[in-house]
């Protein structure tokens, strides 16, 4: 296949592009480098099947030649990034999704939107099944991301229903691994950098809020299975092992062999209290489930951060 990946220089886009090239596909990568980093894809430029264009996907999108799939992964993805880039976050989820859908339609390609567990907001049920409609504050600081992704899902379903397009709606839960930015601001990179520098590890709130963390290679495997499935409805991809942020801070500290203290800082507004994917659908329909334990994933991630700090 010849596959377009938007956000190809980002954390997930770079892993996904490398994986697709490894499977023998051709990849056209786009990124405007707001939060992407060319270092993440440096090795791919040697591959004759990789093309890259620095581009902002919220503008009219023209790609010469055939495309079999359009995978829309471009977006700021960390809470501090949406605070810094609220309007680009809304634009890439809304206008960018529309442009990418239009391109996929013109090329008769499968369209995939990288959606998120954030469509469930601060969920009132735990774990979250795909049938849950969510609990989102549209005007809160996270609303720019949550609502852009909800709009993106609505737009994607409209193209599926109205134009009969093949679409894939991937709801990504917290994912970690190499290629995350050191200054990304999310829990894993913050804790890693702090632990490796023996600086205080900053846990927000009382640290009893929960997340469920998926190692990046498991996520990419799930994405590829979803792409090749015939499923047009949303599918959760994530690791259902739920833990508190305090437990995570302690595990990162151990994995890094760190002497850091754990300190508490204020909880950001609208920070979800719980998050855990119900992966019944992915298990049944994609025959997918995560394989990498948190301990192993954290070891691999520490090695990456060690080489960067
Ligand atoms: N968090 C934390 N310390 C940090 C960064 C994040 O305790 O230095 C918390 C944050 O408040 C949230 C959880 O970790 O409860 C996960 O945050 P992240 O930014 O990784 O992503 P989110 O799951 O909120 O989208």
Question: How does this structure look, described?
Answer:
With 309 residues, this protein is α/β, with parallel strands linked by helices. It has 2 domains: 2-175 and 215-237, Rossmann fold (3-Layer(aba) Sandwich); 180-211 and 241-273 and 292-308, UDP-galactose 4-epimerase, domain 1, CATH 3.90.25. It contains 9 helices and 13 strands. β1, α1 and β2 form a beta-alpha-beta unit. α1 crosses α6, α3 (86-107) runs parallel beside α4 and α5 (187-196) crosses α9. The longest helix has 22 residues, at 86-107. It is globular. The structure holds uridine-5'-diphosphate (UDP).
CATH architectural label of the largest domain:
3-Layer(aba) Sandwich
Number of domains: 2
CA radius of gyration: 18 Å
Report how far the terminal alpha carbons are from each other: 37 Å
What fraction of residues sit in β-strands?
A: 15-25%
Based on DSSP secondary structure assignment, what is the total number of beta strands? 13
- Sheet/helix structural class: alpha/beta
The neighbouring-strand order within the major sheet is 3-2-1-4-5-6-11
Small-molecule binders: uridine-5'-diphosphate
The CATH class designation of the largest domain is Alpha Beta
């Amino acid at each position: 296949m010849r596959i377009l990946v938007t956000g190809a220089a980002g954390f997930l886009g770079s892993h996904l592009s490398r994986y697709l090239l490894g499977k023998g596909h051709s990849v056209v990568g786009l990124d405007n480098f707001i939060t992407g980093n060319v270092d993440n894809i440096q090795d791919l430029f040697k591959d004759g099947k990789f093309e890259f264009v620095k581009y902002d996907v919220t503008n009219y999108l023209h790609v010469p030649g055939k495309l079999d799939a359009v995978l829309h992964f471009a977006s700021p993805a960390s809470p501090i990034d949406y605070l810094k880039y609220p309007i680009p976050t809304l634009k890439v989820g809304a206008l960018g999704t529309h442009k990418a859908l239009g391109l996929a339609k013109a090329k008769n390609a499968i369209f995939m939107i990288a959606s998120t567990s954030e469509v469930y907001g601060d969920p009132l049920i735990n774990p979250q099944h795909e049938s849950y409609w969510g609990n989102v504050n549209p005007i809160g600081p996270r609303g720019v991301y949550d609502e852009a992704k909800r709009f993106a899902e609505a737009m994607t379903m409209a193209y599926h229903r109205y134009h009969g397009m093949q679409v894939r709606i991937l709801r990504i839960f917290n994912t970690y691994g190499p290629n995350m930015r050191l200054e990304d601001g999310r829990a894993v990179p913050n804790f890693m950098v702090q632990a490796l520098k023996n600086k205080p590890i900053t846990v927000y709130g009382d640290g009893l809020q929960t997340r469920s963390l998926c190692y990046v290679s498991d996520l990419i495997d799930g994405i590829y299975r979803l792409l090749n499935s015939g499923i047009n409805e949303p599918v959760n991809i994530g690791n259902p092992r739920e833990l508190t942020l305090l437990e995570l801070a302690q595990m990162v500290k151990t994995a890094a062999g760190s002497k850091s203290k754990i300190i508490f800082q204020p909880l950001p507004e609208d920070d979800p209290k719980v998050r855990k994917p119900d992966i019944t659908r992915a298990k049944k329909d994609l025959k997918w489930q995560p394989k990498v334990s948190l301990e192993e994933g954290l070891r691999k991630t520490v090695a990456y951060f060690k080489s960067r700090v």
